[in-house]
Amino acid sequence: MLMRTDPFRELDRLAQQMTGPGTWSRPSPMAMDAYREGDEYVVAFDLPGVSPEAIDIDVERNMLTVKAERRPAAKSDDVQMELSERPLGIFSRQIVLADTLDTERIRADYDAGVLTLRIPIAERAKPRKIAIGAGSDRKEISG
Fold first, then answer.
1. CB 46 within 8 A of CB 113
2. How many Cα atoms are found within 13 Å in the side-chain-facing hemisphere of 121?
3. Closest Cα partner for 127 from 117, 142, 137, 110?
4. How many whole angstroms from its chain centre is CA 26?
5. How far apart are the C-alpha atoms of 114 and 43, rounded to whole Å?
6. pTM of the prediction?
7. Of 8, 61, 81, 87, which one has the greatest count of Cβ atoms within 10 A?
8. What is the DSSP string of 76-94?
């Protein structure tokens, strides 16, 4: 059998054991990606093994907060754990959203352990043409 070793994995595991799982007062961070796709921003959070009912998404003013809790799987009394590397506890991430985003129309989907939020760009932030009036001649400038 071929075994691959990562010296930093043991350091990560040791640090997690020392700090313990995330709690509501001290949550652990969750991995995320953020990118623009057309007229919306997309933010994807990795939350494998988290039930959709255990995810909480809030927006207050321009602060987006995502919290999730991963609980241990129910096991029978005769189970003896040999290795436990998957983190448990509370995970949280806060993002300050730009004023140009429409926080009233955020859509959330959860599939295959990935929470995806789609945040549309506000109509007021999209480019538009402005008419200029100068006497009887009118010209349009793109802005």
1. yes
2. 11
3. 142
4. 17
5. 10
6. 0.69
7. 87
8. -TT---S---S--EEEEEE
- For the segment 41-72, what is each residue's pLDDT rounded down to a tens digit? 999 999 988 999 999 999 998 899 999 998 87
Q: Which residue has the higher pLDDT, 82 or 17?
A: 82
* Pairwise pLDDT comparison (40 vs 135), residue with the higher score: 40
What is the token pair recorded at 138? 């009118």
* Kind plus residue range of the DSSP H or E element containing 9: helix 7-19
Phi, psi (rounded to 5 degrees) for 138: -120, 135
Cα 110 to the chain's mean position, in Å?
A: 11
Residues in the chain: 143
3-state secondary structure of 29: coil
37, pLDDT greater than 50: yes
Alpha-carbon separation of residue 67 from 51, 62, 87, 108 (angstroms): 12, 16, 15, 13
118 bridge partner residues: 42, 107
Instruction: State phi, psi for 65 to the nearest 5 degrees.
Output: -125, 130
Average pLDDT over residues 105-109: 96
H/E stretch holding 107: strand 107-111
Half-sphere exposure at residue 90, Cβ-oriented, CA atoms within 13 angstroms: 12
